[in-house]
Amino acid sequence: MLDLNHPLEFVKGIGPRRAELLFKAFNVKTISDLLLTYPYKYIDKTTIIPISQVQEDNDWILIKATILYSEIISGRKSRLVTRVSDGTGTMELVWFQGIKYIEPYLIQGSEFLFYGKINVFQGKINLPHPEMERPSSEGQPNFLLPIYSTNEALNRCGLTVKFRRELIAGWLNELTHSDFPEMIPENIIKELKLPTRFGSIKQMHFPQNHQSAELAKKRLIFEEFFVNQSTLMLQKLYRKNFIKGYNFSKIGSFFNDFYNHHLPFNLTDAQKRVIKEIRTDMGSGFQLNRLLQGDVGSGKTIVALMSALIAHDNGYQTCIMAPLEILAQQHFKNILKLTEKLDIRVALLTGSTKKKEKSAIINDLTEGKIHILIGTHAVIEPGILFKQLGLVIIDEQHRFGVEQRAALWSKAIPLPPHVIVMTATPIPRTLAMSIYGDLDVSIIDQLPPGRKPIKTIHYHELKRTEMEYLMKQELNAGRQVFVVFPLIEESETVDLENLQMGYDRIFRAFPPPHYQISVVHGKMKAADKEHEMNRFINHKTNILVATTVIEVGVDIPNASLMVIESADRFGLSQLHQLRGRVGRGADQSYCVLMTGFRLSQDARTRIKTMVETDNGFTIAEVDMQLRGPGSIEGIRQSGGPEFKLANISLHQDLFKLANESALKVLTADPTLEQSQNKGLKTFLAHRLKMNKDMSKIG
Predict the structure, then answer these.
(1) Which pTM value belongs to this model?
(2) Which of 113, 140, 167 is the last residue in one of the domains?
(3) Are residues 480 and 605 in the same domain?
(4) Across the chain, what does the average pLDDT equal?
(5) Is 64 a domain residue?
(6) Domain with 16 in it
(7) Is the pLDDT assigned to residue 628 strictly greater than 80?
(8) 461, 560: one domain
């Protein structure tokens, strides 16, 4: 009996070396893993085409022909040419490699099946490097031939597509329905008329026709979504019902005093709604675990502070963690200013904090004298201890790994802290549900009043003079300007050259002493980067020439113009994040997208979307449609779902159906005790055990 959990390294024909290559290529370890790695396409070997009917647009073809003659043609590169006939016509087959191995089989008068992708050379159709086999007495296969992803290393060691195909076919012949128990409850299968799980897996590998392959694929996509949503819903139910949290039922003097007397502006309705949601969760007696989404400039910081004041009113400390030192400093300055009239102590801890100061912070933290600690990764170091940590707020959470988030959580004793994770990256609803479905979600979908919408302009290269005129206009009015260049890994050297050329051009157009320029890019030392950024923040320079290192970052209310060079090379979400660096003050702000004349269709769509809307969620939806879920910054870092077949942007109808089905099942049977839910319960119990992520904070 075949054991699906049997490691590939012990499988006959694979062994340790090949198993390692398979793991590197596809992250597979067991027979089951390889069986659930599906073909990416199929080729039709069910139909033999007469040579006389072969056309240039046939692509892949199967012919049954007799060898007329073969010859090796010498030249700069030798080639083996074989002419074959099937009675309706003749065709040339050609090999450039492996000639000495193939030639002995090409005996005149021998009949073979030849399969390959046609090529047209000098107006004639030929078949280069075709697969060949003797005709079987059993006739042609009655299925489409699966083609699996591969690479050179796998092919070199004998793990060819053909080898894997034969291996999988052999395994499937040994297996039955009981080896692949259903995870989807029987009533859902009947209601939606889904094929069986085992049947779908078999059809994915060896489908009878394209229709059966498509049906199997739809069922397995639905299953991936259903399991994903069931897992997240179950985790959420468990947390809401079983994970005790600190009961912050008191709304005391600090919160009320700040709200009534020290708020620098009126809260938006969206901010009020979100604060109410957080207050309710904090006072429930169960752990708050909430994703706070808000577009750039929507006012997440004030919500974070007021949440921290609730914690303080109840006698607990708050830790706010940011991914960059400059971002942590910004949070510190903002919160320090907002709380200056309150009897509350705020401290900053980063990698550059001096040893003596750090020691004092640690001491005061453990004694409970520090109420809000703001910092970078430095706050999760082993020696950093809190007296009573009750609330954790993580900014730009996707930039932190699971271990880092879990380390912060572990500093709360005896109960887990309340957790708020914040992101300024708008995430489409379906994608958010597939990643953060175990969290409650709050969205700040309003900008503070008085903010003028940023005017976005698209200029071609010939309008550079107009762009420079706008720069001069803003600078002469006492405002500051960002000029951003792309920095894409594959072309780092070229990009840095472009940045240097751009700097030289700006220097000539805006010479000192009237204009001062800062330069920031990823190749600079952290200290130099910090120095240049601070010069710009403190108005010592009025133009910042940079790469995308400024994408997540600092509020400069005086910056009113963002110029993005080669804007067509940026993703939509990235463009939107960059645009959000301006428009923080009361002045009218602008974003200029500079491009050449020749743009791809996708680039035109991106630029058009940026010019027409400033809604981050609309932009994120378009971005996902163009580039898929991975285009949303941080999805992979966030531990997003690893679907084999499903794609959120392509299969939204199936996702919606799976979400509704999972909700129906868990609403009717939250503990999955009913017999029809046994398979789902068994699978989820195993999955949650195997993928234990105790941080569960995004």
Answers:
(1) 0.70
(2) 140
(3) yes
(4) 87
(5) yes
(6) 8-42+151-208
(7) no
(8) yes
Closest CA to 433 of 687, 229, 696: 229
55 in the same domain as 181: no
Strand boundaries in 565-688, DSSP class E: 590-595
3-state secondary structure string across 422-455? EECCCCCHHHHHHHHCCCEEEEECCCCCCCCCCE
The first and second tokens of residue 207, run together, are 């489908």
Distance CA 487, CA 465 (A): 24
Cβ-based neighbour number of residue 4 at 10 Å = 15
The torsion region of residue 123 among left (phi > 0), alpha (psi -120 to 50) and beta comes to: left
637: pLDDT strictly greater than 60: no
Asked whether residue 464 falls in the same domain as residue 590, the answer is yes
Task: Establish if 662 belongs to a structural domain.
Answer: no
Q: What is the token pair recorded at 267?
A: 């809260």
> How high is the pLDDT of residue 626?
81
For residue 441, report the phi and psi dihedrals to the nearest 5 degrees: -120, 130
pLDDT higher than 50, residue 516: yes
- Give the pLDDT confidence of 525-554 residue by residue, as tens digits: 878 888 888 899 889 999 999 887 665 556
Residue 172: pLDDT over 60: yes
Q: Look up the CATH number of the domain holding residue 134.
A: 2.40.50.140
First to last CA, the chain: 41
Strands 79-85 and 90-95: antiparallel
Q: Minimal CA–CA distance to 320: which of 349, 296, 295?
A: 349
Checking phi first, is residue 28 left (phi over 0); if not, alpha (psi -120 to 50) or beta?
beta
CATH number of the domain within which 481 lies: 3.40.50.300
Q: Tell whether 411 is covered by a domain.
A: no
Q: Both 19 and 102 in a single domain?
A: no
Q: Which one-letter amino acid corresponds to residue 217?
A: K
Alpha-carbon gap, residue 144 to 212, rounded angstroms:
10
Residue 182 and residue 64 in one domain? no
Is residue 386 a contact partner of residue 347, using CB atoms and an 8 Å limit?
A: no
Question: Given this model, what pLDDT does residue 223 score?
Answer: 96
Q: Are residues 35 and 115 in the same domain?
A: no
Q: What tokens were used for 554?
A: 């600092």
**Closest-CA residue to 180 (of 212, 205, 160, 162):** 205
Same domain, 527 and 578: yes
Domain boundary among 164, 183, 208: 208
Report the distance separating Cα 388 and Cα 411, nearest Å: 9
Amino acid identity, position 282 = M
Residue 244: DSSP 8-state: B
The total number of structural domains in the chain stands at: 3
104/70 Cα distance (integer angstroms): 10
The residues with which 455 forms a beta bridge, in sequence order, are: 590
- Top pLDDT among 164 and 500 is at 164
* pLDDT at 367 > cutoff 80: yes
Q: Is residue 236 part of a domain?
A: no
Structure tokens that stand for 693 in this block: 């992520």
